[in-house]
Amino acid sequence: MKKTIALLLLSASLMTSASAQQDPKAGKILDQMSAKYQALNAFKATFTQTLENDAAKVKDNMSGDITVSGQKYHLKMNGQEVINNGKTVWTYMKAENEVNISDYDPDEQDISPSQIYTLYKKGYKYTYVQETKEAGEPCDVIELSPEDRTNQIYKVRMTVSKTDKSVKSWKMFKKNGNRYTVSIKKFQANPPVDANTFAFDKAKYKGVKVIDLR
C-alpha cells in the first residue's frame, strides 16, 4: 500500500542546508495553491504517471484517478483501489480479487493524498526554480526538500499554473533511483461525493477475499 500511495505525492529538494531560509516567492505561490484546494469540498483528478529508473533501465507508464475530500480519498490505478475514510484503509487488488483492511496511520505513509497541498507547511524547505510552460500554459516551478535527511524521497519538483494556481504536474525523486512523474490530465472541482465514495462495499466485489489486518 505504501508504494501505491507514494505514487501520488509531493515532497522534496534543492536546499542543501536545513537552516536555509524559506524562499518567499515560492512560499507565496504555495500558499495560493494550497488555499485553492482547501477551499474545495472535494475534487477529482485523472492523471498519468511515469516511473523511471535509469540504472535498472525501467520506464513504466500507467494512468488512474483519485477523488479527495478532506482526509478521505479513493484512488484507482493499475488494477488496484485504495480507499481511505480517515480511519480505515481498504486496499483492493483486482487480479487477486482480494482486499486488505488496515487502520489509517499517516505516519506509516510517505505522503498521503490528503496531505499533498499542505505538505510544505511543516518539515520541508522550498525554493523557486523557474518559469516554464506546460501544454502551452505558463507555470511556475518550485522544489521542496525534507528537513529529515532519512526521508527516502529527496526531491520533488512541482509545476503550478500561473493562471489559476492549480498543480499541473510533479516529479518525485527517491534515493533508490526511482523517479515518478505525475501529470494531471483532467480536474473536477467539487464532484458529488457521499459516505459510500470512501467506503469499500463488499457486495460489489463478488467472491472477494477479505484480509483484516487491524
From TrEMBL:
It comes from Hymenobacter cavernae. Pfam families: LolA. Transmembrane segments: none annotated. Keywords: Signal. InterPro entries: LolA/LolB/LppX, OM_lipoprot_carrier_LolA-like. Residues 1-20 form the signal peptide. It comes from the Bacteria. This is Outer membrane lipoprotein carrier protein LolA.
